[in-house]
Write a structure and sequence with these properties.
mainly alpha, Rossmann fold, 2 domains, three-stranded parallel sheet, 3 strands, about 45% helix, flat, UDP_glucos_trans, UDP-glucosyltransferase activity
C-alpha cells in the first residue's frame, strides 16, 4: 500500500486478483487490467465497466486455468504500451478517471477509520461472535468464557476468583 499510495505512482498494471484490486482501489490509482483466470475477469469488469477507473488490455473472455495457449491468451507489447499511454494521458477523460479513483480511495480510507462503515461492521461482527476485545485471535471457540489464548490469564483470574 505504501508504494501504491506514493505520489509518484501514476497507475497500476494489475492481474485483477482480489487483493491487488482492493489495494489499488484503496490507494486511489487508475489501473491497467490484465486478468488471467478465475474471478479476475469479474474484478476487471468492476474496475473498467462499473467504477470506470481502469483500462482493459489482455483477454476479454474467461479462460480456464491451463487453457491459455489454446485460446491464444497472449498480450502483445503493443497492447501494454497502448494501455500505459492511455493511463498516463492528460486527456479530460483520464483526468475524470483519476478523480474517480482518488474519490474511491478516499471513501475506502474513511470506511476503515474509527466510526467508518467497515470499522463499525467489523466491530459488530466481532461482538456478534463473542471474540475477546483485547485480541484478534479466533481460539476463543475452544476456551471457556470466549477468551483466546492471549487472554488466558484473564480467564484464570475469572475462574479462580469467580468474577464474571
Amino acid at each position: 500500500m505504501l508504494i501504491l499510495s506514493h505520489q509518484a505512482i501514476g497507475g497500476f498494471l494489475t492481474h485483477c486478483g482480489w487483493n491487488s484490486t482492493f489495494e489499488a482501489l484503496g490507494a486511489g490509482v487508475s489501473k491497467i487490467t490484465w486478468p488471467l483466470f478465475g474471478e479476475q475477469f469479474l474484478n476487471e469488469k468492476v474496475i473498467v465497466d462499473v467504477l470506470k477507473v481502469g483500462y482493459r488490455v489482455g483477454v476479454d473472455v474467461y479462460v480456464e486455468w491451463g487453457q491459455e495457449e489454446r485460446f491464444e491468451v497472449v498480450v502483445k507489447r503493443e497492447e501494454i504500451e497502448r494501455g500505459v499511454r492511455k493511463l498516463m494521458d492528460k486527456s479530460e477523460e483520464h483526468e475524470e478517471m483519476r478523480i474517480r479513483a482518488k474519490e474511491i480511495g478516499e471513501m475506502g480510507r474513511r470506511a476503515m477509520e474509527s466510526g467508518g462503515s467497515s470499522h463499525l461492521n467489523l466491530s459488530h461482527f466481532i461482538q456478534d461472535i463473542g471474540i475477546c476485545r483485547s485480541c484478534t485471535c479466533l481460539f476463543f471457540m475452544i476456551l471457556p468464557r470466549r477468551h483466546c489464548h492471549s487472554c488466558l490469564l484473564n480467564v484464570n483470574y475469572v475462574l479462580i476468583n469467580g468474577n464474571a
